[in-house]
Specification:
237 residues; Rossmann fold; six-stranded parallel sheet; HAD-like_sf; hydrolase; HAD_sf; HAD superfamily hydrolase (TIGR01509 family)/beta-phosphoglucomutase family hydrolase
């Protein structure tokens, strides 16, 4: 690709800039399997469930989507619900507690190839933003030591405050482009999740890059990726 054709890069965070997707996967598995163990006739939650129903979505949407796949209905609850409460929000908060415990204990390092691409784009004067469904995005960026690279962060908290639907709707990416002062046609979306790639395609962005960290190149292409790479270093100018 020719980066001169674009003014901005809109990065998902988990699995694109940092390997925190593995932390999220572990936290989701712990939470859902603990919950399913108390229900008769339910098979365990798997990585396939993560990619199909949870990956890239806002936390409560992920809970709702997975439960629906198992025919389980729970009250929606409120975002203030205790993690012990069996509601959509309660289960989402239980997962968030597990994620934060691992992040605090182990920290996180950005992918080296992602840092090299960030350095190259900064040298070219490209405008950079993070677009993440997670409300933990600022904490993850700070832990990874790359927060100062992104003048614009549209995360789950911003989406909730402004009433923006989450991925696969394109609204959070469009908000980031607007805040950077760039057009969608001159912006590149970089995503590892099916829902995020679909959001980039739905938003009509100039280029949608799929980063294959486990979803599969064919799957990301089918959801709308123009290009699929294994590591962002492959996109160096």
């Amino acid at each position: 690709m020719n980066w001169d054709d674009y003014d901005a890069a809109l990065f998902d965070l988990d699995g694109v800039l940092t390997p925190t997707a593995t932390v999220h996967m572990a936290a989701w598995a712990e939470m859902f399997n603990d919950y399913l163990a108390g229900r008769d006739g339910q098979r365990p939650y798997t990585d396939e469930d993560y990619y199909a129903y949870v990956d890239g979505k806002p936390r409560y949407d992920g809970v709702r989507s997975f439960l629906a796949s198992r025919g389980i209905e729970l009250p929606e609850g409120e975002p203030s619900d205790s993690p012990e409460v069996e509601t959509v929000c309660g289960l989402g908060n239980r997962k968030n507690d597990a994620f934060n415990a691992v992040l605090e204990r182990d920290g996180v390092e950005p992918y080296p190839g992602s840092v090299r691409l960030l350095d190259a784009l900064a040298a070219k004067g490209a405008r950079l933003a993070v677009v993440s469904s997670s409300q933990n995005a600022p904490a993850v960026l700070a832990a990874a030591g790359i927060a100062e690279r992104f003048p614009v962060v549209v995360d789950g908290a911003v989406a909730a405050a402004e009433g923006l639907p989450g991925k696969p709707a394109p609204d959070t990416f469009l908000k980031a482009a607007d805040r950077l002062g760039v057009t969608r046609e001159r912006s590149v979306v970089l995503e590892d999740a099916e829902s995020g790639v679909a959001a980039g395609r739905a938003g009509g962005f100039g280029l949608v890059v799929g980063v294959d960290r486990g979803a599969g190149a064919d799957t990301l292409t089918a959801r709308g990726a123009d290009v699929v790479v294994d590591d962002l270093e492959e996109l160096l100018p």
